[in-house]
Structure formats: structure tokens, C-alpha cells
Amino acid sequence: MEKTDASQCSSGEERFKAVSHLVQGRGFHFTQAHLPEALFQKLPQLASRRERFLTLMHRYSTRLFLHDLLAGGPEVDPTRLTHYVGRDHAARLIEQLKVMDLVEQTDTGLRHRFPQWLNPGWLLEWYLATVLSEEFASPALFNVGLKGARCGGDYDVLACWLGRLLYIEAKSAPPKGIHNPQVAAFLERIEELKPDLAIFLNDTHLRVKDKIVLMFEEEIIKLKGLKSLQQMPVLRVQEQIFHLAHSIYICNSKRDIRTNLRIIFQHYLSYWSKTSIVFQSKEESQWRGK
User: Fold this and answer.
1) Is 131 found in the same domain as 55?
2) Would you say residue 212 lies in a domain?
């Protein structure tokens, strides 16, 4: 699979550099990284339909449907696309994907035109990088490899958010498919790269409190000892969004990924911002206005 590196960036060069500088400042260099437009290099038929495809990707039901669509080879039996969505909903999604030239009808069923290597995890990482870039004015790269990193695997999403380094670990599997080693690897990557803000995002509408949060507590004890969990407990922000020390966040995608990211960013800033407006008394406001 072709990777995007600094020499391949043209219109995205400045966005690439914005993230690269934050990573290089920590002593690392990229071995691989993708800008959001990488998807359209792989699927050029989407270039003129990107807004329509992005609108579809905003919906949790679409992401579940694509999970089924990409589960096997390009030849697809339409009857196996209804694990997560109803038959009528699946039919509507199929028609929309046909219009975008991503799916075609065959004598035996359907054939999708996504590359064989493309999986739901890669697509989720692309989506998050796109949302960060377009809705939060934060240049973002995804599927990032770092030279010299001791921790195995890739950094799913790295972004320059308000001049800070943001790291998102994206999981497309339900909580039952996520296990302690994955949480441990996330914490180890944080230890190594030292981002300003890190988010463990599970793309599910199921609760993360029951399993994911418990695994975080277990792995923090293994990594830092019992006292560290007492000093840095996992606390709820709201609903299924949690934080550790206002810098590591855990969330699902219920409501909307964009909404949950917004809540996390506001929560982070309310604690760490040194320039936030302090409510003044009426007398002080009048004095300052003179």
C-alpha cells in the first residue's frame, strides 16, 4: 500500500508540516503518514463526491454497514449486509453507494470497489482525521508510523489542535472485541510520544464504562502502581465520556463523534487554559470599564 510522506504532499504540505513539527520536536520522524485526501487517491471516483460520502460517514449506521460490506472480498451477498441495519436502510445505502460508483450490481449480488486492503479501522481513522481538519481547524494525519518508536503498531490519528499534539486511538470493534493489550499499548504510546491530549475512541453506542474503563484502571495499576490510580482516577465527564487527569479521555460515539470531541475539547480547555475569561463581579466590571 502506498504511503504519503513529506515529499508527496503538495496542497497539504503546510498541514503535514504542522503535525510533523510537533512530532519532530519530541524527537521522532514519520515512517508513514496519510493526509485525509489519501482516500481520494485510492478512490478517485469519490473526489467529486467527497461531501456526500462524508455526510454518510457522519452516521453511525453507515459505519456499521461498511463494516459488513468490507468484511469479506469484493463480491458481496446483499443478505449479509443487515447485521446492524434493517433491510430497507441497507437498500437505501446500497443505492447511495451505487451513485458514488463504490458498489455495482452483479448477476450474483453486489461488488464493491474499495481496495482489498482497506478495512473499517482505516476508514474510521480517515474519518476522524477529516473531521479534525474540517470541523476543528486542526491539521491531522492518520495511520502514522514513527521511526525509532519502541511501541509497536501505528498511531491512528495525530493532529495539531490549537498548537497542541493530539493523539486519537480509534477502535471500530465493539467493547467485547477490545482487550487489555490494546489499552496497554495505547498507554505505552502516550508514555513514549507524550502528546498534550490523548483520546481512546471506541466507535460504538454501547457503554464503555463496563469494560473499557475497567481495563484502563487495570493497566494503569500495572504500569504505575496502585497509588497512581488513587492519584489519577478515571472520572466521568458526562454520560460515556471519561478522563484521567484532564489529559487522557475515553469515549464512545453515541450521540455523535463530533459532539463528543467537542465536549472533550471544551472540558480539556476549561481545566488547562490559562487565558480563559474569569467571571467578574458587577463592581469590578464597572471599574474596568472606566
Assistant:
1) no
2) yes
